[in-house]
Amino acid sequence: MPGSVTIYLGLSGLSSIFPRNWLIYTLSSCVSLIPLYTVGVFNSFTLSQSGMVVRWWRARTPGWQRNILVNGLGAMTTGLVLIISAVTKFQYGAWIVLVLIPILIVMFLAIHRHYARVEKEEQEQDAVVPQALNQQVTFKHTFVVPVARLNAVTIKALNYARSLSNNVTAVHIVEGEDRNEAEQFSKEWQRVLPDTDINMVMIESPFRSLIGPLISYIDALDQQHPDDIITVVLPEALPSKPWEYMLHNQTAFRLKAALLFRENTIVTDVPRLLGRGPAGLPQGRGWRFVDLPWGSMLILLMVAFLIYYFTIVR
Question: Exposed/middle/buried for 277, CB within 10 Å: 0-12, 13-18, 19+?
């Protein structure tokens, strides 16, 4: 049900773009929307009346003959008006509705077929579940924790992975050609985690790529241990202000997208909320009106004004 509501809202928003752009194209002339309104309304009336005719024919409830006659007469009347309006107002904007409605119908049918196919596949898989529940299944886990630097968020992610399995590997990608980076990180690892049993692997990436070398390492692990479940634990620092999200965790987002369709691979987030104390409570002076991103908002306002000036005023 929530998915159906999301699709309905998405397609409704998509269908509203065309009249909006048409209104801008005609310099805010509301008269130009009348053909769209006429064809859209009588098209809806015709489809609803025709749907009721089909329903009465299938249900055959008491009084269906009278109901099917009334709805059939209504469908023919509104359909006749629809045809006349579509022909006479075609060049004045009615063509938008005539093109948009079939496209939406095809989209809805495609979505319906997708859900039907998924439901059928789930039913076939669910038939095996009662037998699988009677069998004890033991999973072998391999944990991989990407580590850029050793901080509180990374240590928390390593401790989380180590509490679940003994097979934990921290992976550090050495960017560029700086040979001192690998040596400095190794010394930092020995200083912060001197007695840990967590494996640490450093991978050189001369082209400053993070996702590619990490995916290649996970692929190699998958080939070495094909029966293991690989869990990638991502330490993430979450800012306290929504407009700061775009400044953080971009690499984590790209890594999640790259691992989304991998078989036997699980991605786990270990978040830490920035701007909060150890107990998770807000700290500092709190939110103030001056904290809003006034620079970005001013730029967006200027862009919106320029679009309005060059598309409508001129």
Answer: exposed
What is the DSSP pairing of strand 140-146 with strand 168-175? Answer: parallel
Q: Would you say the pTM of this structure is higher than 0.90?
A: no
Among the residue ranges 20-29, 95-104, 155-164, the one predicted with the least confidence is 20-29
Phi, psi of 17 (to 5 degrees): -70, -40
CATH number 3.30.413.10 given to 138-279: no
Query: 3-class DSSP state for residue 148?
Result: coil
Rounded CA-CA distance 99/119 in Å is 31
Strand blocks (E) in 25-175:
140-146, 168-175
> What CA–CA distance (Å, rounded) separates 157 from 236?
9
- The tokens for 200 are 């640490």
Helix crossing, 64-88 with 34-59: angle to 10°?
160
Lowest-confidence pick of 26-40, 63-77, 113-127, 176-190? 26-40
Q: How far apart are CA 256 and CA 234, in angstroms?
A: 9
Task: Read off the pLDDT of residues 24-58 as tens digits, 9 standing for 90 and up.
Answer: 665 556 666 777 778 888 888 998 999 999 999 99
The predicted-structure confidence for 99-112, as pLDDT tens digits, reads as follows 878 888 888 888 88
Compute how many other C-beta atoms are within 10 angstroms of the C-beta atom of residue 206. 10
How many Å apart are CA 143 and CA 199, to the nearest integer? 10
CA distance 159 to 180: 27
Calculate mean pLDDT across residues 108-135. 76
Which DSSP symbol is given to 266?
A: E
Q: Where are the domains of the chain?
A: 2-126, 138-279
Sheet hosting strand 228-238, strand order edge to edge = 199-205, 168-175, 140-146, 228-238, 265-273
Cβ(236)–Cβ(252) below 8 Å: yes
Nearest residue to 171 (alpha-carbon basis) of 211, 203, 196, 194: 203
